[in-house]
């Protein structure tokens, strides 16, 4: 580092508030500049960014460290003459950085004296830019306490971070902290803004040196009048480009000065009609970039690993959901088979043609529920018209499914009817009937069993329709409607609410349907319930992980596509009225 104690940045100027001896050099003490608090302001085009660049160039000429927070992408022109590290969020930078690089950026700046342009203009996400700037400022402050090395942080458009009105974010709080406490650690700050009225006055009034370029808006000139004097507030409107009033603690006076022109490429100049030619820019050491690239590579590797683990977890959760659904399907099949067995055994033991359908259903429920309490047993026996008690085989099944459904499931799993043995029925491990009825191959006994089976099916269908007359099912609740309603009533409330969601909203994901049903984000439960609906044909996959309602298609399929559209609509409406209405969003 050079032993320079002062840097020359401007010459005195004549005019209101100026000197009678213009052209004298204006110097700034380096220590005051690096460790103090400064403020440079002026309307667009007045020369404030040029002044900041001149200060930066003079520090770089003498080997002093600094970090420029560039909000408009104006400072990369410094690379025309200086090996300065340009970091930010796009490919124009030497390297793209994120919040994870903050510690290394601060280390390069303070410990290795690497000048840095932190270009936040290249971030599309403002929150990402603010997070990076906050992290870098915190790291600079923390390391400066240990390093004790004079270092300057130059912040463009500081009114966006430390506003006079409105709330101040983490960035502003950190910049204010550096302004108040950074000096004792050797960390200085310079804020630059075209709107002094919008910058927090607590910051401006604590500055050691201030530069006021041309200002014309009334609110801004009022700030000049309060801090300098009303005479300067009037004169500041007539300053030429690059001209400014400079107020410093060390000179204890206000001088009218003309700042020098910057020597490097002016990337912040307003575009004109002349051809634009970008100069050749200096590159920084590959070792510096490689250190930052290592952090980027490690971050990318971590993100990739996290993504892989999430994908694996999703696959496992999906598989768990499938297995749980398959287990539930197996239990349902076993339950329906046991229901079929109970119905068949009950009628083979002694079907009473005079028994009503309701009594028949009550009797079967009593079988499945086990021995009733004393009062309930007496009532059940009385309503059945008989004093006999029958002991049902042990079973976890409960009533509720249609007899036709039980027969279908039982047929698929296999009802073993051994014509040559004394075992009446063997199915899915259910206990064989031992009431003396056997399918031994004799024609008359097979005929009796068939007659009993037909009667049982008719009795259950009549019970489901709510009418004692078997013929009423055809008029009050068609077989198609009864079968679908029976299946739906077997489903739990959340599953029905999910079906209602598909009905009301159209295509959606199982997770969204579960949320609508009052469930949580349990992916396994959502897909298990959705699979129940899909296997019954009530919903179908329509692409991109979404499912849609298909009750009307199901009604058509269940009736072998023999119904016209009007009848299908009528049947579907009956089903929705009987089961789905009232199962809207939780």
TrEMBL record:
Annotated family: Belongs to the HerA family.
Keyword Coiled coil tagged: yes
Disordered, as annotated region: 1-25, 347-406, 420-446
Coiled coil: 285-343
Domain Winged helix: 468-583
Domain Helicase HerA central: 24-144
Record lineage: Archaea, Methanobacteriati, Methanobacteriota, Stenosarchaea group, Halobacteria
This protein's name: DUF87 domain-containing protein
Organism whose genome encodes this protein: Haloarcula rubra
Molecular-function GO terms, alphabetical: 3'-5' DNA helicase activity; 5'-3' DNA helicase activity
Start-end of Basic and acidic residues biased regions: 357-368
Gene3D superfamilies with a match to the protein in the record: P-loop containing nucleotide triphosphate hydrolases (3.40.50.300)
Catalyzed reactions per annotation: Couples ATP hydrolysis with the unwinding of duplex DNA by translocating in the 3'-5' direction; ATP + H2O = ADP + phosphate + H(+)
PANTHER family per the UniProt record, alphabetical: HELICASE MJ1565-RELATED
Keywords, alphabetical: Coiled coil
Key word Coiled coil present: yes
